[in-house]
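Residues determine shape. Next comes a sample protein:
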Amino acid sequence: MSNILALDTSTENCSAALSINGEVLVREFVSPREHTKRILPMVDSLLSEAGIKLTDLDALAFGRGPGSFTGVRIGTGIAQGLAFGADLPMLPVSTLAIMAQGAHRLHNATDVLPAIDARMGEIYFAQYQLNDAGIMTLVGNEMVITAAELVANYNQPEREFYTLGTGWETYAEQLAGLNVSQLTACEGIQFPISHDMIAIATADFANGKAVAVEDAMPVYVRDTVTWKKLPGRE
């Protein structure tokens, strides 16, 4: 069992989690403008509770985006600094994947449409499906898109999905028209939390997906193509 520290500051929620000897310890706090003040004390608290040092870990995972540009940069920079100082490999994890994994953990969901409010009338959106190993896997591409564009171009009429995130909360009325069989809201999941990053990071580490500090980059998504890559669109 790998020992992994995970941290995320990509949205209003600030969180850290530590997987040590199969046990997961968690710290989180909704603090939109205090991430730089809160994340390192969270890390210190986790390490202290577990009675270990950073150098005792196998890897460091972080929420690489999408999300708030400032938040993603903060999380990436702090994670890189910690990993560099402890000579640890890094595991960049999508914030949308983290949310999807949370839907499985809390609601046993297998098909999920996470969405984060991207401001400027847009959402960060993706489709995830549970694989045989119990890990949420991306279907298609992550994207930034308006609710109207998504409704006009998304085509999965025979599929049922769980929904979660601030994107669904902000644009609930528009997104209710999505062309799917059924939408079920996941209560209690607005933001990604590091607890759910652990499962993905552990699987990625076991599959050799860890990268060096200099290769651990944030992902902002806004530069990608949107509706042309939607699942179900030819």
